[in-house]
Amino acid sequence: MSTPSSAALASARGKSTGLRSITISHPHGAGHSNLLDLVVRNDIHTWIRRGEGLVAFGETARFTTTGPARFDAAQQWWKQELDRIEIVNELGWPGTGPVAFGSFAFSKTSSHESRLIVPEILVGSRNGHSWITYITADPGADLTAEAAESMLEEYLAAPAPERVGHPEDRLEPGVLSEEEYMRAVRLGVERIHGGTLSKLVLARDVVACLGSPVAAGQVLRELAVRYQDCWTYAVDGLIGSTPEMLIKVEDHTAQARVLAGTLDRAGEPLADPEYAQRVLAGSEKQLHEHQIAIDSLTGQLEPFTHSMTSHSEPFVLKLPNVWHLASDVCAELAPDEDGQVPTSLALVGALHPTAAVCGTPTTVAGSLIRELEHLERGPYAGPVGWIDANGNGEWGIALRGGVIESETRVRLYAGCGIVEGSQPEAELAETWSKLRPMMEALGVGRPEHQHRC
After folding, report:
1. Cα–Cα nearest to 91, from 434, 446, 392
2. CA–CA separation, 409 vs 214, rounded Å?
3. Considering only CA atoms, which of 396, 367, 445, 413 is closest in space to residue 205?
4. Rg of the chain's alpha carbons, rounded to an integer?
5. 281 in Cβ contact with 311 (< 8 Å)
6. What is the average per-residue pLDDT within 199-216?
7. Is the pLDDT of residue 326 over 70?
8. For 25-75, how does the pLDDT look when each residue is reduced to its tens digit (9 = 90+)?
9. pLDDT greater than 80 at residue 153
10. What angle, 0 to 180 degrees and rounded to 10, lies between the N-to-C axes of helices 216-226 and 424-442?
């Protein structure tokens, strides 16, 4: 294990009016075979894909906000915290040093509090390297490798109990019944035919009512193993595994993954390996929906870039539950008048909401969503992820997930892109395919007849 220099440690032990942090190299898998071995608590924060990412415990600082300026307010708070924080970090990789995990409300009109949370202990893994970051507001805390390791072990010593299926586990309808959701889709298609918008994303919710307390860590581990090409996230009770990257920033480069166009893998013809490519890429409706999503993101990102590249044609992303039409976008970020490139959080504020989760034009679609869904999305379809002290970060769209409302109640969400050719029955079926990852991880099945218990 490499340790910080004595000069750096002396600086870290000094008094501070703000936070103090130290990052140490951690032998890869020391005491734990991988990051998932650390995902054992219900109050955990995670960002994991293909065995790499971040797992965090505790809370050293928190910021909450609502309204249209929520992204700017969070960005300003994080900047103020960084202006007075003492940092010891001789590694310098993205995700090392102090990090804030974030979750933001989908709607600017939502009363749901958007938040940034600075953990106490963070473990990261990247390209075969691992590290621990210890962040404290205690000016007298001893910032050493030993203290960081000891704090981590304290959190790991109190794992949450695992959960097994219970006879009272059930799935209840949410705000809209199946029939009400299909009616909303019909009304949305009518508005699209009327020419006021070209795409609308309509979501619905269901509620998992459990007979025994939810084990969030267990759910997250199952999602991370089953959906390795997705980003498994947990921030303050919002959990899931999203296939869609809103924006990733490393130094001067930004990347995004856009999804639009979905095909359920249930009943997939195993003797026809070209089935998904033919059905998705050969569908005018699916390609139209995908192009709207791509144009939305690239149009909003372009003012911040020197150059930008994306696939000339979407590729088919194969997940355990569905296929998606997907496109990856890469951009070289341009500095502003002060020579600073935008942070990942600044880009989140500029890009959200995209057509992939709202529609286009977004103002018209957002208003129609509130009219037809009758649903408080809260953090569903909002940005979720993390930002470090250098502005690097990864922010996904909070899809394929849910909100833990109590120890036995989890609200799940799924939505579909509605365009001119959309059929209500098909869109309803698509929501069930998108709900399946969380239903399977929680161990609850689809009811034969939906009714409120």
Report:
1. 392
2. 8
3. 413
4. 22
5. no
6. 96
7. yes
8. 987 555 555 899 999 999 999 999 999 999 999 999 999 999 999 999 999
9. yes
10. 120
Name the residue ranges covered by the structural domains of the chain: 6-156, 170-442
Q: Which residues pair with 324 in a beta bridge?
A: 262, 317
3-state percent helix, strand, coil for the chain, nearest multiple of 5: 30, 30, 40
Strand partners, 123: 55, 132
The pLDDT of residue 5: 42
8 A C-beta contact, residue 379 and residue 113? no
Tell me how far CA of residue 107 lies from CA of 96, 355, 358, in angstroms. 31, 14, 10
Kindly report the average pLDDT of the chain as a whole number: 90
Residue 278 CA to residue 142 CA, distance in Å, equals 60
Looking at this protein, which amino acid is placed at residue 358? C
pLDDT at residue 7 is higher than 70:
no
The dihedrals phi and psi of 71, each to the nearest 5 degrees, come to -70, -45
Q: State the angle between helix axes of 70-84 and 344-351 in degrees (0 to 180), rounded to the nearest 10.
A: 170
DSSP 303: G
Three-state SS at 220 = helix
- 409 contacts 401 by C-beta, under 8 angstroms: no
pLDDT in tens, 225-240: 999 999 999 999 999 9
Of the chain, the percentage scoring pLDDT greater than 70 comes to: 93
Both structure tokens of 440? 């399977």
CA distances for 287 relative to 277, 325, 353, 417, angstroms:
12, 8, 20, 12
Q: Report the pLDDT averaged over residues 163-181.
A: 94
What is the pLDDT at residue 28?
Answer: 52
Give 112's contacts (C-beta < 8 A, 6+ positions apart). 66, 105, 376, 377, 378, 379
Cα dihedral 274, 280, 281, 286, rounded to 10, equals 180
Q: Which CATH number is 170-442 given?
A: 3.60.120.10
**Half-sphere exposure for 134 (CA within 13 Å, toward CB):** 23
Q: What is the pLDDT of residue 11?
A: 33
